């Protein structure tokens, strides 16, 4: 199965980055085709929590359901798509996302920046 990875250095406190990335309302700010997203489960996010998102372009949209599979604040967060992304009759395509924060130490006397990998 192919894997894709990307990294970016974010010069903000780790908890602030984690909170931003795991707040579904911010997804449209950094995911190009995301129109909206919100938690669909009650209570604080944790493993098993679900969110509903709407993706699309050119006036078309598709509702997606995602489930949190790992919740380790403020270090990592994984989710998996419960809604098939593509209506295929072939073997199901599984999409999982992992977001991890790693300290990026440039100067040992300064507060570290964090590298986001996803």
Describe this structure in words.
It contains two helices and seven strands, in the order βααββββββ. It is mostly beta strands. The protein has one domain: START domain (Alpha-D-Glucose-1,6-Bisphosphate, Chain A, domain 4), CATH 3.30.530.20. Strands 1-7-6-5-4-3-2 form a seven-stranded antiparallel beta sheet. A hairpin with a 6-residue loop joins β3 and β4 (62-72). The protein is globular and about 40 Å long. The two termini are 16 Å apart.
- For the secondary structure, the number of strands is 7
CATH superfamily: START domain
Q: What series of H and E elements makes up the topology?
A: EHHEEEEEE
Task: Report the C-alpha radius of gyration, rounded.
Answer: 16 Å
CATH architecture: 2-Layer Sandwich
- CATH class reads Alpha Beta
Strand content: 35-45%
How far apart, in Å, are the first and last alpha carbons?
A: 16 Å
**Could you name the ranges where pLDDT drops below 50 across 5 or more consecutive residues?**
none
Number of domains: 1
Give short descriptive properties of this protein.
118 residues; single chain; 2 helices; 10% helix; Alpha-D-Glucose-1,6-Bisphosphate, Chain A, domain 4; globular; mainly beta
